Amino acid sequence: MSSFDVKALIGETTEYDKKQYLEEKKPKSWCKSVSAFANGIGGSLIWGITKDDEIVGLESPARDAEIISEQIKIRLNPIPHFNLRFEKVEDKTLIVLDVYSGDQTPYYYDGDGQLIAYHRVGNESVPADPIKLQELVLKGSVSSFDCLTSRYSFDDMSFTKLKATYKRRTGNSFEHSDYESFGITNEEGRLSNAGALIADECPIRQSRLFCTRWNGLDKAPGVVDAVDDKEYSGGLINLLQAGTDFVSNNSKRAWKKTGDGRIEMPDYPERAVLEGLVNALIHRNYLELGSEVHLDMFDDRLEIYSPGGMCDGSRVQDRDLMRIPSRRRNPIIADIFNRLKYMDRRGSGFKKILSDYRNHPNYTSEMEPSFYSDNDSFLLILSNVNYKKQNDSAHNKKTEKTIENMNRIKGYLSEHDGARTREIAESIGLSPARTRALLNSMEDVVATGEYVNRRYWIKK
Question: For the whole model, what pTM was predicted?
Answer without folding.
Answer: 0.76
